[in-house]
């Protein structure tokens, strides 16, 4: 699987890319997401064990025309932690074969060039291939541009605005009727 937009290629991560991916993710956590929290970001501690060769899990990378890492996305089995969801949403995710699009993080210098959209759509495609239904995601609405980005994607619909929770969370799901598959 490869998704390409002008000056951007998205592929599954390779083992040799993991050090750069970890630096990227930790940098994003520090700069924009309030820092590393082991309860929320443990996957970053061992990317290989979490994502590579683990059924149902995937780590994607976007690289620019020069081959530089521009961003990441991941697919994880399951939805957000039930304790962070309203009961009705936790029940929905517990009842299905839920997959989650996560870690759609683009370095600031690569934003507004199609990298985020390419990563998000590739992660959604990967989640469909894995057989997840529903496919969910959430964003921190306090990060500039994050909420507007997800709302701009025709393939997703907002299902719950959890604000003012501690993370300014807005939850979305993929609307499978809107996919070009």
Name of the CATH first level: Alpha Beta
Oligomerization state of this entry? single chain
Instruction: Indicate the low-confidence ranges by residue numbers.
Output: none
Radius of gyration: 15 Å
The CATH architecture term is: 3-Layer(aba) Sandwich
Summed up, the helix count is 6
The name of the CATH topology is: Aminopeptidase
The overall number of domains is 1
Overall pLDDT level: 91
Strand % is: 25-35%
Helix content bin: 25-40%
Query: Biggest sheet, in brief?
Result: 8 strands, mixed
The largest sheet has its strands arranged as 1-2-3-4-5-6-8-7
Strand and helix order = EEHHHEEHEHEHEE
The CATH superfamily appears as Gcn5-related N-acetyltransferase (GNAT)
For the record, give the distance between the C-alpha atoms at the N and C termini, rounded to a whole number.
Answer: 14 Å
Query: Which structural class do the helices and strands define?
Result: alpha+beta
Shape: globular
SSE topology:
Layout: E1 3-5, E2 8-12, H1 18-32, H2 38-41, H3 47-51, E3 58-64, E4 69-77, H4 87-95, E5 99-106, H5 115-129, E6 135-140, H6 146-152, E7 156-161, E8 169-174
Question: What would you say this structure looks like, in words?
Answer:
It is a single chain. The chain is an alpha+beta fold and 181 residues long. It has a single domain, classed as Aminopeptidase. Strand 3 and strand 4 form a beta hairpin. The two termini are 14 Å apart.
Short structural description:
This protein has 181 residues and is α+β, with helices and mostly antiparallel strands. It has a single domain, classed as Aminopeptidase (3-Layer(aba) Sandwich).
């Amino acid at each position: 699987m490869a998704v390409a937009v002008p000056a951007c290629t998205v592929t599954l991560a390779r083992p040799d890319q993991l050090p750069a991916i970890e630096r990227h993710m930790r940098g994003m956590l520090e700069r924009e997401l309030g820092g590393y929290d082991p309860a929320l970001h443990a996957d970053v501690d061992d990317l290989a064990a979490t994502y590579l060769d683990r059924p149902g899990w995937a780590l994607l990378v976007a690289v620019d025309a020069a081959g530089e890492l521009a961003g990441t996305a991941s697919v994880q089995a399951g939805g957000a932690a039930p304790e962070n969801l309203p009961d009705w949403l936790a029940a929905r995710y517990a009842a299905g074969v839920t997959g989650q699009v996560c870690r759609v993080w683009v370095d600031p210098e690569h934003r507004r060039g199609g990298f985020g959209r390419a990563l998000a759509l590739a992660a959604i495609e990967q989640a469909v291939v894995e057989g997840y239904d529903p496919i969910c995601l959430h964003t921190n609405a306090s990060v500039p541009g994050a909420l507007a980005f997800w709302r701009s994607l025709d393939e997703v619909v907002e299902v719950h605005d959890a604000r003012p929770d501690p993370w300014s969370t807005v939850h979305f799901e993929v609307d499978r009727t809107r996919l070009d598959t």
